Amino acid sequence: MADRPVFSYFYSMKNSAIGEKIIKTASKLFYSNGYNATGVNEIIAKCGIAKATLYSHFNSKEDICLAYLQQRHDAFLTSFKIYVPERKNGKEQLLAIFDFLTDMYRDGDFNGCWALKTLGELSPNQERIFAAIQKQKKEFLSYLGEIVVNNVVNVSKAEKEKISGGLYLLYESAITESHLFKNDWPIFLSKNIAPSIFERMELV
Fold this sequence. Notes:
mainly alpha; about 200 residues; elongated; transcription regulation; Arc Repressor Mutant, subunit A
C-alpha cells in the first residue's frame, strides 16, 4: 500500500494528524454524497472539531477538495504501479487496469471515479480543481504509456499514444458505466474490446 500522503501544501505538518482526520472524513462524504452536497459544517460535525480548527488547516472547502483528490489519486496510482509488475509481461500487463478496476468495483465502497464525480459538479470558476483533475488524469495516462512501452516490441510514439489512449478511454468508460449500472459488465466488455487496439503488435 502507498505511503501516507503528505499534505504540506494545504496545512501545517505539526498538525498533520488533525489535517488527515479532516481529509479522511471529507473524503468519505465527498465520494459517497458528492462535493456540492457536502457542507463544511457537516465535515466539522463528523470530525468533532471546532470551525476554527478546520480553518486553521484549510482556507476553504475547495482546498479540502484538492487535498482529497490528491490523496485518492496518489493511493490509486501507487497501488496500480505495484499491481502491474505482479502480472505476466505482455497482454496481462496491458489489460491489468481492467482487472485492477474489477477489484475496485468489488470493494464495498465503490462509487465510480472520484475525480469525474467531482468534475461533474464544478462551476466554471472552479479552475483550480479542474486543473488538478486534468493533471492527475494526465499522470495516469502517462503511466499507461509506460506500460505500453514495456510490453510492446519496438512500439513507435504514435502507436504508444494510440494504445495508451485507447486503454485510458476504455477504462474511463468502464469505471463510469459500472457505477451507473451497478454492475461489472462494462468492465468485462471494455477488457474484451481492449486487445483489438494492439492485436497486430508484437508483445513482449
